[in-house]
Amino acid sequence: MLKENAKEGLNKLNELVNEAVGSAVVQEESDIAREKLEEVKAYEEKLEDNFVELSTDEDNVLEEVQEDVEEKVEEATEEVVSGVEAVQEEVAPVVENIQDAVEEKVEEAQEVVEEVTEEVEPVVEEVKRRS
């Protein structure tokens, strides 16, 4: 029972660590995406201002604006994807180290539980015999 409780506790600890690391990655990815979106919006606003000034050739200007915006969105998307991949590469060893440490602690706890069980079993048997 003690062994199971220790194992469950360590498994829950492992889950919490994994969730925390995942949250940090998601937050960083979200921040990068938000930043790129702001850049695209600012660029889009600039293009809209230019569009108003150049409204004499409306069709050509609109087409150019759309192409520019599409290009900026594509660039921002590529940067975000690259950033996400970089973050994942950086976080992967950390997660692996945490998992290794947790597994080591689980093994240590299991060894302790086994040792305690071995020491307690004879006492329990003796108490049962006397009862």
Topology of this protein?
Layout: H1 2-53, H2 58-130
Query: Main beta sheet, described?
Result: none
Beta-strand content: under 5%
Shape: rod-shaped
**Strand tally:** 0
The helix content is over 70%
Low-confidence stretches: none
Compute the separation of the termini in Å.
22 Å
Structural class, by secondary structure, is mainly alpha
Arithmetic mean pLDDT: 78
Q: What order do the SSEs take from the amino end to the carboxyl end, as H and E?
A: HH
Give the C-alpha Rg: 29 Å
Number of helices: 2
Main features:
single chain, mainly alpha, 95% helix
Description:
- The protein has 131 residues and is mainly alpha-helical.
- Helices cover 95% and strands 0% of the residues.
- The protein is built from two helices and no strands.
- Helix 1 packs antiparallel against helix 2.
- The model has no long low-confidence stretch (mean pLDDT 78).
Outline of this structure?
By secondary structure, the protein is mostly helical. It has 2 helices and no strands.
